[in-house]
Specification:
The chain has about 450 residues and is an alpha/beta fold. Helix content is about 35%, strand content about 10%. It has helices at about 70-80, 95-105, 135-140, 180-185, 195-210, 225-235, 240-245, 255-270, 285-290, 305-310, 350-360, 360-370, 390-405, 420-435, 440-455; strands spanning about 1-5, 60-65, 85-95, 115, 155, 165, 170-180, 300, 315-320, 330-335, 340, 375, 410. Strands 7, 8, 9, 10, 12 and 13 form a six-stranded mixed sheet that branches. The chain starts with a strand and ends with a helix.
């Protein structure tokens, strides 16, 4: 069963189904959330000992972002087939509303059992979601590759990520890179993906010279942040400073020369006509549609768009954003589709059983790839679901494997705090592209917004 709280805000494919997930949708920052526990002054009750349930019965309510509904509807149906006495309801909010209002949602007297999170904010410190350490032991998640849980671990201080207890898991992982229209790429003489930023810029130049839009990108709701982050990591020569910043590690700072250099490059790309003239007005719903209609040789975005692109009438490929220099390390943004259990849930054991199911069941893993375009989570021994050779989905799966081998997985800068994407990253990049601020001012604004949200 599905209940839409705010209606559909994004398309999954040209047939009108939602595809976008993980990154922010366009939305106004809503009014400040109520204080933790406002909806239930008594706070969460004592947590039950973690137990592996052989069978699940009763209701289970899941709250995800609106574009995720088709995937989670299908996962819920598979779960109910496995557990006939279970009754899973999938509710939805648009992504910006969901991540901004997560504290308020979780503080009500009747919160969802499972909620999708973009970042943790103060949810751990305020005890609004539960530790999954006991369930990790009960279900054997502790035996899986630890790197897949890294971004969902939170230290005892309730803020620093990358270490500490586990607070979320999910069916799969997002991955960013660059899609290309194979027909238009052929027109500009691209025979293989670029191996450096300079090679990529040469391809962008060729596209512009042929009267083609070099790159489609959604600047209204954060697609341009992918470019900024990749350029920043390239100029830094390593992804470690960015990872430290997104994980809120002490001393991490983004107001640095690599950030200024990245901002200058992005601003120059806009001035040189590599981006759409209306880039700041294009959202994540419109961008993939315009791209499939032939507007843009390249489209920097994530693997969640791959199923929709494969369903279109065009032919599209995918490659990782290139390093600054040929032979340099590849880095790309990736994060789990994090699902957490509410501290006020009356069904935490059942919720944990669902979290295990979406990671381990073969049918669930196939749905994660086919409908979500995500790389499935789970044990290292689990087979990768088959993908159609030559498809965009197949390209993203192969790219993820290459990235894992090069140890280039980095979290999204948008996940550094609960609302920094809406409050700081998007408006600052929009101002940069419009020429209203300098690269130096952008770097300063990003760090100021970060420190402000962390209360430092």
């Amino acid at each position: 069963m599905t209940t839409s709280l705010h209606g559909m805000v994004a398309l999954q494919s040209l047939r009108g189904r939602a595809t976008t997930a993980l990154l922010l949708g366009a939305a106004l920052l809503l009014a400040a959330c109520g204080p933790p526990g406002a909806g239930n002054p008594g706070g969460p009750g004592p947590q039950e000992p973690a137990t592996r349930l052989p069978a699940v019965s009763g209701p289970l309510r899941i709250l995800v972002s609106t574009p995720d509904v088709p995937l989670y509807e299908a996962l819920a149906e598979e779960f109910e087939a496995e557990h006939p006495d279970a009754d899973v309801t999938v509710d939805s909010e648009d992504y910006a509303t969901l991540i901004t209002n997560a504290p308020r949602i979780l503080s009500t007297s009747n919160p969802p059992d499972i909620i999708k999170l973009g970042s943790f904010g103060n949810l751990v410190k305020d005890e609004m979601i539960i530790s999954l350490d006991g369930y990790a032991e009960a279900y054997g998640w502790d035996d899986w590759p630890p790197s897949q849980f890294l971004s969902a671990r939170v230290a005892a201080d309730g803020g620093t990520r990358g270490t500490g207890s586990l607070y979320a898991v999910g069916p799969g992982f997002g991955l960013t890179g660059v899609y290309y229209n194979t027909s238009l790429a052929g027109e500009i003489g691209m025979s293989q993906p670029p191996e450096s930023v300079s090679e990529f810029e040469d391809l962008l130049d060729r596209a512009r010279e042929k009267g083609l839009l070099p790159m489609m990108v959604n600047g209204k709701d954060g697609g341009t942040a992918f470019l900024l982050q990749n350029l920043q990591m390239g100029h830094a020569g390593t992804s470690e400073p960015m990872q430290a910043w997104t994980f809120n590690q002490p001393g991490a700072d983004i107001d640095t020369e690599p950030t200024v250099q990245a901002a200058a490059a992005l601003q120059a790309w806009a001035a040189d006509g590599y981006l759409p003239d209306d880039v700041n007005s294009i959202d994540q719903s419109a961008a993939p549609i315009r791209f499939t209609e032939g507007e843009g040789v390249f489209f920097p975005s994530g693997n969640w768009h791959a199923p929709g692109l494969d369903e279109s009438s065009g032919d599209f490929g995918f490659f990782l954003f290139p390093p600054m220099e040929e032979g340099g390390p590849y880095s790309a943004m990736t994060a789990g589709s994090n699902l957490a259990i509410s501290a006020r849930s009356e069904h935490p054991q059942e919720a944990a059983a669902f979290l295990d199911f979406v990671q381990t069941d073969a049918s669930a893993r196939e749905l994660t790839v086919r409908l979500g375009g995500l790389i499935p989570a789970g044990p290292e021994s689990a087979p990768m679901p088959a993908t159609e050779r030559g498809s965009a989905v197949s390209d993203t799966v192969a790219a993820f494997g290459h990235l894992v081998a090069s140890d280039g997985l980095v979290d999204f800068m948008a996940n550094a705090t609960a609302s920094i994407q809406v409050s700081t990253i998007v408006p600052s990049i929009q101002s940069l592209l419009a020429g209203r601020i300098t690269p130096e001012e952008l770097a300063s604004q990003l760090e100021d917004g970060y420190e402000r949200e962390l209360g430092r």
